[in-house]
Protein 1
Amino acid sequence: MKTALALGAISALTLAPVFGQQAANHGDPFTPVGWLTVNRVHVRTGVKPELTWSIQYPKTVHDIVDIDPETDKIVPKQKTRMEVRVVGAAFQVGATHTPVALQARVGSGSSWEPLFFGADNTVNPSDVVLNQVVEAGTTVDFAAQAQRLNGSWYSSRNTLSPNPTVQAMTKGDSVPHYVPAYQQGTVESFLTSYIDADNFVTVGPRDVIYLFELYSNNPTSSYFDMQDIVVVVTFHDVD
């Protein structure tokens, strides 16, 4: 809350043991698929059959997109369908929970598209605020702001240039060590589904989670908690 002031491993994999033909993909992007053939239907004692197999491992987010290590903008490596969800917000001025806003820009020459505007109690993590097919090589940027009591806005935090107030992370990443909230255990409840007790990210294998700090620019400040608005971006295959 912000108050501003190999063969032996075949049995462990999901394979379709089809004799003489390749198995069709079963549609689950998170499970390995493949095929296995044998050159004999019946095998006598002492005869070694010949096995042939192929395994297709599921793609992770790093197979699908590049994440700029400096700015945290996203550039798909292949055509993909991108879903964006706001999973939580926590910003207030004094006792008043003020709105936050999220925008996205798909393509460096495109206009910014408003995706979300509201206070923390208006967030529905199930709502997809952007569902768009993105071509390979297209730059995807995000920007967020918080509103003051008088209706004016704090400065935008975005992926246009390197900025510690925006952090993109994927499954298994550790949250920024310099953020006091994570070290002190003052993490908002909505983040418990995405960050574990050891401060590691637990999103899905095709997700990118964005943490935004919308008030302070000083990573050593107690106000710098990187949870003023939290966004999850998921990437899907396109037929």
Protein 2
Amino acid sequence: EGKAVMTANTARDIWITATTLITALNLGIFAYAFAGLTLLFGLFSILTGVIFYTLSRKY
């Protein structure tokens, strides 16, 4: 008949699941690191603003 027969391929299913989970984990780690750097940059910017404000008020 020429029809393709789909058989269960557990090795492929496990590989796809593992690849998906590894990708999700790497994306989560990247997002966590990016959020930390963004927070650090924001706090540094606020600190710089406070320092410049106090310097401008003194002189």
Protein 3
Amino acid sequence: MRLRFTAALLGQALLCSVALQAQEGPELYGPGIFSTGAWDFFVALTPDQRTAYFCRANGDFSYYTILETRRVAGRWTEPRVAPFSGRWSDADPHVSADGSRMFFISNRPVSGNRSREEYDIWTMERAAGGGWGEPRRLAAPVNRDSVTEWSPSVARNGNLYFGTIRPGGKGGNDLYVARWVGGRYAEPESLGDSLNTEAGEFEPWVSPDERYLIFSAVGRPDGAGGFDLYLSQRRGGVWQGALPLTGVNTPKGEFNQSVSPDGRYLFFSSTRGSFDSVPSAALAYPEMQRRLTGVGNGLGDIYRISLKELGVGVRAP
């Protein structure tokens, strides 16, 4: 979620690869709808891919809103503020694989009218009429007072993956899983030294079958600069060392990733922009304004790339 800071599976080709290479490169997704020149980030699709939730932030990335758009006659409708968002700062939406639950993070209070300094994970259940029920804050041990939890991602078995800072961690932001056992969440466990490092690991997205995990990280020696995306596969119940998505990562920042419900596409946000290279000629005022205020101005835009283009074997999760 924050700047403060395969698809199944990957097969032998990934095991023999030292990095995942893209053939065509990412495409800007949904200009004017998903990518606008504002801070746009984090796509979450319902299982039928007819409704999308995504986030938009203010200029200094200190306030976030979850937006909703619907696909009608092959086109995404003009976004609206999601019915459960728009007052408090909300981000990182994630819809479960069966569409029955949504998770997101928020600084909203449990009671009263004062926002919290930290962000916690909230959840909603699908209502009988097709909307969402009332948001409720996950209790301990998932959420802790005075600590931020972010980027929830749930597996089909109920296990909840997220990022946070906890005692006994690597000293910074690490990745955790709270297992769903007996109808409740167990104490969160670190995903271990194969994934967590003394750098910062953020924003896990786990496949519904827990075969692979994509996360963002900053400060790793094999990164391209800024936030980068990494992928790890799980074998024998153990997460393997992560590989950088070198066909996606740039010296700018890539983060807030998710995979479409059919396992075909990776969505992510990037701060790459039109000023990353020197213009070939002096810019006239209209073009300068367009670059400064529109898509590609260096704030977060949403991109999409086929997992097949990353050389990753794909099947529906």
Protein 4
Amino acid sequence: MKLFVKILLFAGVLGITQASFAQMRNYGKEANALYKAGLYAEAADALKKASEKTSVKSEDSRKKKAEFAYRSAECYRMIHDFAAAEQQYEKAILLKYFETEPKVYYYLGEMQLGQCNHKKALNSYKKYQQLNAGDPLIKVRIETCEKYDEFEENAGRHEMNPMTKLNTPQFDYGTVMDSRGTTLYFTSSRSAATGENTELITNQDFSDIFYSEIDRKGNYTEPVPMPAPVNTIHNEGTIAMDKRGKKMFFTRCVNDGKNNLGCDIYMTEKRGSAYSEPVKIELKDHDTSNVGHPAVSPDGNTLIFASNMAGGEGGIDLWISTYNRRGDTWSLPKNLGPEVNTPGNDVFPVWGEGDKLFYSTDGLVGMGGLDLFVAEKVADKDEWKNPVNLGAPLNSCSDDYQIIYTQNDENGARGFISSNRAGSKGPRENPSQDIWSFYLPPVLIDLSITVVNQETGKPVPNKKITVIGSDGSNYTYTTDAYGMVDLTESADGTRLIKPGGNFTIDVPSEKGAWLGNKDKFSTADIGKPTRVIREIAILDITKPLRLPEVRYALGSAELQVIPGVNSKDSLNYLYDLMMDNPNIVVKLMSHTDSRGSSAANRSLAQRRAQSCVNYLVNEKGLPAARLVPKGYGEDVPATYYEVNAAGDTTATHKLTEAYINQFKSDKAKFEMLHQKNRRTEGEIISFDYVKP
């Protein structure tokens, strides 16, 4: 949890100074007093020493030693020293503290997961599950560990970098960009913050709101604190602005020097270069409740915020309130409900473009700690649903929160998150809360198209093609000598093929030359630079369309459908071709061999051609006007191509009766040549059919 998460949970603890403990003589009592006062940074080492000094002489002393170790671990956990906390939890377990508090295994798992040791964490969580299977979060934690590798394997292409010019060893987090994109605001507990008090829970200095200006080259100036009346001697942070940048909402947690008096959301308006006196927004249902982490709608009239007030789903929930201009009041907060909130902590909301709700939670399956999620708004309602994990590397095994986008378009995405992941400033075992930038390069999609002859597979040069996109784009090109076209970007650098679209490649027909073809592809699921390769085959219609599997019994016009032979398959190919090209009219031509009389062969061929038409019309549903049957008998012999071993044509012959009769002594070849004459073919005779 972050600084303000801890304050929301623990605001109101008694602030006891270190000096008051100097008078205590009992080391254990001193350590426990620090713990109960919420002075976790000081109590952690004191409780560790108290445990070390307690010898196990009896059952009571064992329990006391275990309790000191457990409380020490709790303190280290609160101040995010996970390695030290893990050590103390393990010590408490060795001393059988799980008999007193089963959750020691759960917290041990949290510390292990926070250090990316998901396999060790899984073992700890399962041990806790055996002791308390009813905990609503334990299944989430176990699934988190089990899916950890999957998150890493499916990591996005984001480039993550710490903002070294803005970060310090103290806490720096919660970025907001102004409406012009020239000033970055954030929360920091660096030494330049107003006031000299130290936050009792985290041992960090009180935080303030800082800002850094961005020049034309993208350089950031040295951050400076916002002046009074925004910053005070108290804790200020986690801000939000309306779309115009006129209204600023922020969290202020007041401390009177002895007690944290709770957290509230304040609003200030920009007047010229100054800000008005902040006004507290009345949102609490009870004095012990705390509110913070504001997110504001573009018009500034709706707030989503985090609070531990009663009626929620878990530790800290997200709530919503709307502004009543007439009464100058804010509505009674409404919980966003279980569609968004969880039994865990749901914090750091950000109102994104398109009314998307970004927030962080430890109550859903993620990578560990707080994970970033985005939920979609329900139309015409102040409700959100279907939270989706933003995945790695925006998320990590550490706490990741407060995401903002400064760019999110076809040229890529940029923005900031806050995180204490490895690489942040501070000690390696306890990284600080830092600001991280991210950059997601654009998804560059190239398209390579090759147009080939359907029968030979050879490329077709100088062929016009058109690429039509669902976004309205329309590009026409001509294939090169290799039958290819490459689409990358236009002369002005605009990408031609964009992610998230559907595209059609149209190779148009040419009368007397080619029957065109179409192909479709989608870029909806493409998430990384990709070259889409498509090959489109077009049909050479200067030659008849062969239908080699259309066969008949001897002397019969009935289509042959027997085991191993299905004449309808070839006709189904023709049917598909005509459905894809609804304007063509086809002449079906049937031929016989030369055996028998010419008149009989013509009559048989005509009946066979008619059988093909009958099937396509009566069984497949093609209009009869699109089909013309013609029986040629033996009048149009086929052409025979002699091919050598290399596949080259060495001679061509018309299969006349005289030519075939030369091979009577070679029965196999004689029958093969007659078979080539017995054929059914198609010819496109019109491209002008219009459905009546």
